[in-house]
Amino acid sequence: MLVVYGIPNCDTVKKAKKYLEENNIEFQFHNFKKDGVDKTQVEAWLSQIPADMLINKRGTTWRALPDETKQNLTAEVAVELALENPSIIKRPVVDNQGQFSVGFKAQDWDKAFLSE
Predict the structure, then answer these.
(1) Considering 4, 5, 6, 10, which one is annotated as catalytic?
(2) Residue 10 is a catalytic residue
């Protein structure tokens, strides 16, 4: 089953969930804030998604980080950041049977989910 990770009040997550519902694609929603994330999960995402794509660099959490942390973003640093504050993870993260992606663009999702 498709798993969508995110925060319910995030506009991009809302669009992604609406897309899946409108296209009758079954999914499970995992709320970062309520359900948390663990190290194993974040490391699995980073095995397929580069750290600079997984970490949301546009949000207030990123902007509040020390410059040294921002300039030295590695997978290890990304894991620490994600565990300390899951809202720094770009949303949504999607687990499609072990294939991970991040973000939502309808045209990309059309290719991934509707052309099968």
Answers:
(1) 10
(2) yes
